[in-house]
Amino acid sequence: MASKGTVSVEVSGLRREFKGKGSPVVALDGVSLKVGQGEIFGVLGPNGAGKTTMIRILSTLLLPTGGWAKVMGFDVEHEPEKVRRVINMASGAEKAGYDFISAKRNLWFFSQLYGIPSEIAEKRIMELSEMLGLTKYLDRKFYALSTGYRQRATIARAFVNEPKVVFLDEPTIGLDVMTARSIREFLQEQARQSGRTIILASHNMAEVEAICDRVAIIDKGKIIAAGTPDDLKRSLGAPALVMEVSPPQSGFEMLSTVAGVKGFTSSTEEERGLSTVQIVVETDAAARAAEDAVKKQGLKVVASWRKQATLEEVFVALVGRGFKEREEQDVV
Amino acid sequence: MSFSPWVRTMKARALVRLWSIFGEPLWIVVSMGFPVLSSLALSLLYYSIGATSYVGFAVLGGVMVSFWGNVLWSMASQFYWDKQEGLFEIYLTSPAPISAILIGMSVGGIIGTVPSALIVTGIGWVLFHPAVNAAWGGVILTFGLTLASLYAMGMTLSSLYLAYGREAESLNEVLQEPVSMLSGLYFPSIGSRSPFPLAIQAAASLIPLTIGMDALRKTLFYGNDIGQVWPDLAILAVMAVVLLFLSTYTLKYLENVGRRDGTIAVRIR
């Protein structure tokens, strides 16, 4: 998959296997992509799809077992020192700070790992903190920061060296809506105004849809679709069908046999006594056929409506199931 | 990487350690407790049985046990904790030289432990007036080389602990007392005054602290000058250099293994 303009990240046939109990586990299986300068590129997939593995390879924490990857023209396998000078990374799951020193001193410390003179580092820390709404909390010890402010500090850390490419792994996981939104706005600003390339691994479809210029949907280590969010959604054809069905059901396998149904995902709300099914269909006729198939099983369709496609429907159309079902399949 | 970023990284890591230590006053008190009490207990014991010439050994032991505790709990375990917290990944994905981080941790640890060492010395001096017959040039050089080799050992352990999981803390527990005893923190463990057989003395001599303690006693209490303790000083210097190189080599090796096997970034929770 190609990008416009200067290429910041280039990956070709990237493969990574891990030792398994029996046969090797393939975490990445021949991934190829190009990401341009100033682009926010989303890597979207369920847990275990290979997103974090790809981020770890690109940020030099893991070696590929096949293929190659370059960041700003430097090979991640053979030139890790050069790659490390132009990148930074952050994960939503990390704590990433020394508890008994302030957020400001933590940020200063991390800036020193890049050899940044103190006065420049302090100016950057203040600017980043201002942008992220962290200024008031800079003097608080790291352990005293709330999850949201700790994550803002983590994001500030990832930009303190003015990296050309930033890798973010689930950066807003577990955050409240307002904090997540302010981090997303910050990321967009960094890409648009400073021309930084941001590679964002996430299973939060709304987040990816909201800020990414392009998206690669990854499943079982392979890129199964890539493009702009709008292009991907347009590829679906008809709006998705949503049905609320009573009594609650654990499976809707009858839908698999309906012509024109590309896939579906379902969830159950015990309190309301019903299941909600989202069905990706090729045509309006297929939507009607799907509703009939459910009714034929003796189930009551309490409500049904059509909705604009999201990236979740794109994934469902490609894989036949949603993220949640895909993760459950892997566990089984 | 030029010299300047190396110094910046080293200085920053040292400051993080100092801010962490002095930012929590209770921590200072707690870290002083064990050296002060153990030194007092042994000084009283030696004093009560009339072994007054050994009281100075107990005070010196209290000073050095502060540094040994710091090496074990704040140096050796540090990368293991950093790995658990996700901080080690940040080090690895930055251009910072790992040797600067290790030496910064050591410098911060040494400076941060000085107050504890001074308080043990002060209390011991005021209460027991240990007899000192010092060759100060030799004392200072021996003390410096002992710390250098001791912290270099901490750096090597820190690298090795990366390969461990939850065992790291248990390993510290296992190491603390035997090394304290074998290295002769409170009594001579090598040489003519040692209670140990030769084989144990030989094994104990592999620990930098053993050589350092022996040389410190010679220079501080028996007036030996540099010319008389030069073999000890040479061994300490060699140990410091070898362990320093071993620690950076081990870290590089473990990083490569970790990148290959996917273990370096695995957090243990």
Structural commentary:
The complex is a heterodimer of chains A (332) and B (269). By secondary structure, chain A is an alpha/beta fold. Chain A is built from 11 helices and 14 strands. Chain A has a 6-stranded mixed β-sheet with strand order 6-7-8-3-9-10, sandwiched between helices. In chain A, strands 2-1-4-5 form a 4-stranded antiparallel β-sheet, covered by helices on one side. In chain A, strands 12-13-11-14 form a 4-stranded antiparallel β-sheet, with helices on both faces. In chain A, strand 12 (261-269) and strand 13 (274-281) form a beta hairpin. In chain A, helix 3 crosses helix 4 (118-132), helix 3 runs parallel beside helix 5 (147-159) and helix 4 (118-132) crosses helix 5 (147-159). Chain A is globular and about 70 Å long. Chain A starts with 6 loop residues before the first strand and ends with a helix. Chain B is an all-alpha fold. Chain B has helices spanning 3-22, 25-48, 55-76, 78-85, 87-92, 98-128, 136-161, 167-182, 198-204, 208-221, 226-261. Chain B has 11 helices and no strands. In chain B, helix 3 (55-76) runs parallel beside helix 7 and helix 7 (136-161) packs antiparallel against helix 10 (208-221). The longest helix of chain B is centred in the C-terminal third of the chain and has 36 residues, at 226-261. The A-B interface holds A 16, 18-19, 56, 59-63, 81, 84-85, 87-89, 91, 93-101, 105, 108-110, 112-117, 141, 157, 161 and B 1-2, 4-5, 8-9, 11-13, 15-16, 19-20, 23-24, 27, 85-87, 89-96, 258-262, 264-265.
